[in-house]
Protein: Long-chain fatty acid--CoA ligase
Organism: Streptomyces alboniger
Amino acid sequence: MNVRLSVGGDTPVARDGRAAPGARPCGPPGTGETLAHLARRNAERWPTAAAIRWRGPADEPCHMTYAAAWEASEGTARGLLSLGLAPGDRVAVLSGLRPEWTTTLLAAAASGLVVVSLLPSTVPEEIVHVLGDCEARVVVCEDAEQLAKVEAARPRLPHLRHTVLIDAPAAASPPDSAGSSPDSAEHPVRTLSLDELRARGRRDVDAAELRLRSDAVRAEDLLAIIYTSGTTGPKKGCALSHGNYVSVLRAHPQPPPRPEGGQEHTNGTVFVVTGPHTIAMLMQVLAWWSRYTLVFRRGGPDDSLVDEIRAARPQILPLVPLALEQIYSSVLASWPEEDVSLVVEAARAGLDARERVRRGETLPPRLQEWFDATEKSLFAKVRDHFGGALRRVTVSGAPVSREILVFFLGCGVPLVECYGMTETAAAATTNTPDAYRLGTVGRPLPGVEVATAPDGEVLIRGANVFRGYWGYHEDEFGSVRDGWLHTGDLGSIDADGYVTLTGRKKELIQLSHGVAVSPNPVESELRGNPLISHAVAYGEGKPHLVVLLTLNEPYAGKWAAERRLPTGMAPLVRDPILLRELTRTVQRANATLQEYYRVRAFMVLDRDLSLDEGELTISMKVARHVVHARFREELDALYR
């Protein structure tokens, strides 16, 4: 479907976080369905069911019931109100995923405030940008290290009034004697522990006042400002309303009900792998909507992703492609090297058999016999890496190698590709186990429209579309015109409504002979080799593409040891045997691609790309401009 659009714009987001005059409503007003209402409902109906599970400092299992989560959230909300915050004021959270992150989100939702989440890895300059741009009044910090970052930024944050410390020392000062910043005597910034904040709220704000404040929250009011990962330029805050998220929830079918009461009687578990950003925000509200138990990944330096997933036994597992690639490498590494090609081939045959059954065909007896035997000896073992209780694995955020998709689908993993972006509350289209088309991101969610512009750009319209970029008039970016969100993604829509993504408009590489190519096809093909963690194509103004590769260190180390090669990354990337293997991978990828998409040379880094170095965004996408600039000299040398 192609549409021709006229340029238009919407009223900007009001700086107080309320709906600006004349702004288009983005959610179903008057429903009474906000995140706070969902949390209170669950606490009242299923008080002893487990809302959150996690591993403690000594690896001990911990959980928080719906009743306890709402009690903590209510206490935090009353504490925030005691600080004099008005509806629409911004509360930032500088923390990893943990129960206090969830309860602070619920507290903000219940008191009409707007939450702004930052990862613990956020660097000081970015903290200044985000907190200054959203004019945060309060920052909730995970520990002393995060608090120190905010304290260093205080002179440049005139709107900041309070900091709250989650992991405070045992002997904390009372609220009224908390220290203030010496650099701003006119507007002192006070620091409280989270316990002190809650005690202050219980003392100064009664529950009825909070209930009135909570009931006044409308669907069109803001719930969160999420700063986009941004592969170029400064980050912009996406303003998302309660209604944006509720519209996505309504598009998801409710799971079959389970018996009421009891800690174990939720509808299943959602294992959240990513940090507190776009997908994690959606999983928070989805869990409360569908009565799932949230399970947070600990993610320590010695923690294996596959081991944590297996221990969590999730029913719902949202993943970014990088995490799926890590699981793929781990699964293949569990077989001897000489058996890997046989395992991959069996998965391909398994997918073919499953597709035939899905079309209503009866498998020939010998094929059925092979399938039944392989199901027990191979496919079930692959699914065991996911814990053995999966209902669905969703993958979104970037292209996934077809080889990886075929492998897991062939082994019976209920994996579906979907599509969304921060600007659509993380959801817009999805495949389902019953309606799946390989290589697509599925069909639009109920209530969402998807179209393509004449130049192939994907357009989205629906109640999930955000209110705009915080502090900017829409004309400055033109992201929403005539109600359609211009995503910046390129794609197509088939006759059955399935959407296929082909690349990003801004990531197109203009070769010297005038052809513009997307880097995604060759990059995703290359990442199908479990040795490769990242592939970054390069070639602006050049006659052809070259690519920078990084190794998946755990898998590459095992691969090298089996061949008695050096296992350290620095010597390994220069080893002729490794380079021959990577050359074969590039040749196989080139064989599937059109001429202009083919890679003519490659280089291999002796380390992986790094979030801390700015080479990856917080959603684990490659920051191309950073990688290209940092390794430009080495990449240019590939053309000589």
The two ends are 44 Å apart (CA to CA).
